[in-house]
Amino acid sequence: MRPFLYDRADDLATARQAGTNEAMAFMAGGTTLLDLMKLDVMRPLRVVDINGLAPAHGRIEITSTGLYLGALVRMSDAADHQAIRRDYPVIAQSLALAASAQIRNMATLGGNVLQRTRCNYFRDPTWPACNKRQPGSGCAALEGVNRTHAVLGVSDHCIATYPGDFAQALIALDAVVEIASGEGERRLPFAALHRVPGDTPEIETILQPGELITGFYIAAAPWLRRSLYLKIRDRQSYEFALASAAVALDLEASPEGQRIRQSRIALGGVAAKPWRATAAEAALQGKIMSEDVAMAAGAAAFAEARPRSENAFKVELGQRTLARALMQAAEMEV
Amino acid sequence: MNYPSRFTPSPSEASASPDTPGLSRRRMLIGGASAAAVPWITTPAHAEAPPSPVQRHVDAPVSIELTVNGQDHRLSIDARTTLLDALREHLGLTGSKKGCDQGQCGACTLHVGGRRVLSCLVLAASVREPVTTVEGLSGPEGSLHPMQQAFIDQDAFQCGYCTPGQIMSAIACVREGHAGSDGEIREYMSGNLCRCAAYPHILAAVNQAKTQIKEG
């Protein structure tokens, strides 16, 4: 690990002041940052420890209008929260199925959504070609070992998969992300936070240097309780998704069956960023829930898929994962 | 201490980071006098409160205080030092093991503020709560913690390298209320790898000890 200056910011004003240079990194749980610093992938000159913000920005608040999650909430605290498990199941499940118990005790929600890809060419600097790590150097995964890589949102410059789970749950519940910057504060739909790689895969979010996520807000909505996270992976536990689906459904009973008033769908393990599947949502709109309808939604979600040599299986796996998630959500008793 | 060479870039590597061409880490200073040289790491100067003239070198040690197993320690360490290295290399507490050093194997698991964490992915300088390691489990007369005894009774290890991490994780697993069933124990112990594959015996040990350990 390369040397760096270590500082603490125990309040937002100090963090904001610290935040205006690109060679600085905020550190909360540190589970991504320190890992990638040891691998010599991330090389900050200054590390600003923001764990002291937890008293002000690490709260879980549930009101009649919705759920607020401070950015410094630890993954395990949200995953184990009784009211979140009951009323926002997709949130609790996406967190409980991620990482290990130790990492969930460390990692914060703000840092979680900013975790970096697990692409081995990105994580290993002995590979010269990685546009995300070294812009303009190429992409070794295009013709390399790419079984775990993305099929949606990819470009000819990067096919790295967004590795997280919680971000998809936030998208499925129309969450808003709250961001502090030197100028003040801004809020935007969480689905707008991440960028597709295009020809600048090194730029992963719309965050400007020094901006800091301070929290997430989920407004009350009819689909919150009928929501779930289905994660398919090589191992049963402590593994990243090959394909995952976060779904939320608003159903109404009709003589023919359960009619889908509205749905929200986000996919993981298959895309370059947390992927809202709007085509699948459109395919479900107004339909009577059935396996055929669920599979049609899966097909719509992957219509634009661009598989490579080793990851074509993710198209069918992703479709079936989404279809099963939709069927399971429809069967939930809420 | 002397770091193994892989932790310390060679002088040529250290003098020019790819992120900041031409900037030397070794020469990077922070503070009023160096503001012109490294404007991006200084805070704006206020007329009424000029910045402190104190300069810091990136290689300068940081002073930290650690409470480990009830004992207070003051250390002057390299900012890069993980909690695991501080314990093993500076305090002589080698119970916590270094397996992967990448947060993947769980051998370094210990408790900070009563919660299990991976000490290889924690900067020692960032620790703000008391630390408990496997050395801190036994009673005043040297009596074993129920989980330690259960690991012996159930033959829950072969080579033993992962065992301190397994024991620290298992105690937390029970206290968290995640030891309700075999399936739940397996899920909530999945962050601790055992290359000897003593998993069935570890499961038996957790089941044995869980009635003697309080939740919460």
Comma- or semicolon-separated keywords:
heterodimer, A: 334 residues, alpha+beta, Uridine Diphospho-n-acetylenolpyruvylglucosamine Reductase, domain 2, Enolase-like, domain 1, five-stranded antiparallel sheet, four-stranded antiparallel sheet, 13 helices, 12 strands, B: 216 residues, Ubiquitin-like (UB roll), DNA polymerase, domain 1, three-stranded antiparallel sheet, two-stranded antiparallel sheet, 6 helices, 13% strand, elongated, disordered N terminus
Describe, in plain words, how this protein is organized in 3D.
The complex is a heterodimer of chains A (334) and B (216). Helices cover 28% and strands 21% of the residues of chain A. By secondary structure, chain A is an alpha+beta fold. Among the domains of chain A are: 5-50, Uridine Diphospho-n-acetylenolpyruvylglucosamine Reductase, domain 2, CATH 3.30.43; 227-331, CO dehydrogenase flavoprotein, C-terminal domain (Enolase-like, domain 1). Chain A has a five-stranded antiparallel β-sheet. A four-stranded antiparallel β-sheet of chain A has the order 9-10-11-12. With 216 residues, chain B is an alpha+beta fold. Chain B folds into three domains: 1-59, no CATH class; 62-101 and 116-136, Ubiquitin-like (UB roll), CATH 3.10.20; 146-212, [2Fe-2S]-binding domain (DNA polymerase, domain 1). Helix content of chain B is 24%, strand content 13%. Chain B has six helices and seven strands, in the order αββββαβββαααα. In chain B, the strands form three sheets. In chain B, strands 6-5-7 form a three-stranded antiparallel β-sheet, covered by helices on one side. A two-stranded antiparallel ribbon of chain B has the order 1-2. A two-stranded antiparallel sheet of chain B has the order 3-4. In chain B, β5 (109-112) and β6 form a beta hairpin. Chain B is elongated, with a radius of gyration of 22 Å. In chain B, 37% of the residues are buried.
